[in-house]
Amino acid sequence: MSAIEDVTRLLATGYVPYHGVVDGSVYERLKCLRPKRAKWFTREAKKICLGCSRGCVVADAMGFELTLPVSGRAKRLCFAELPAVSARELLDKKLFLTVPEAEFVLNVSTRSVYNLLEEGRLTRHPDPPTRITSASVRQEAERREGDNATGTY
């Protein structure tokens, strides 16, 4: 498994990066050859190191500086929540898209989606919440692809 897959798996199971100080006795106990490469993740008292291929696990907090708990929101800072389907599948299967789905298909920000709605390039359903016709998103995506192909975008 790659390092990215290892980190993703740990984050998905509730682990968070550990930013406290680790005492040298921990590395001695683990017979660690390269303590400077250590990258620790923690969940409750359990700690896992991804600094090398050994993947050392420590079940107690002995030798680890106590740190304040991290809120659940901070765990997902670097990972986007993307639909499990492609942009084309969204357009083919849904009559109306949510704002995040339109962002995903067009690869633009939330503000850009609302700007496109205000400009009339995207068509919204008249009732709340904001839903955008997949036909107008498809048309805008094709327009952008055409502009990009001709170099005007």
UniProtKB/TrEMBL annotation:
<feature type="region of interest" description="Disordered">
    <location>
        <begin position="122"/>
        <end position="153"/>
    </location>
</feature>
<protein>
    <submittedName>
        <fullName>Uncharacterized protein</fullName>
    </submittedName>
</protein>
